[in-house]
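Incident log, structure service

09:12 report received: a user says their structure output differs between two submissions of the same chain.
09:20 pulled the input from the user's history:
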Amino acid sequence: MEPGSSSRANAPAPPAQRWSERVGIAIALATLVIPFWVISFYSTSRTSSSPPASLQLRSD
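09:34 re-ran on a clean worker, output below:
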């Protein structure tokens, strides 16, 4: 075993690798959260509960 090999194994990750991990986590969270947000935004009930006027039955 080389004298410097044990210190390399315990060394922290280089800054570029930590940055790429954070970017990857942000992309993964956005991939999971944005579709649910869009679905919930567009699936809210914005119409009245009565059917359209063309489908209502007239009681004459």
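09:41 both user submissions now match this output. Likely a transient worker issue. Closing.
09:42 reviewer note: The two ends are 97 Å apart (CA to CA). The mean pLDDT is 77.
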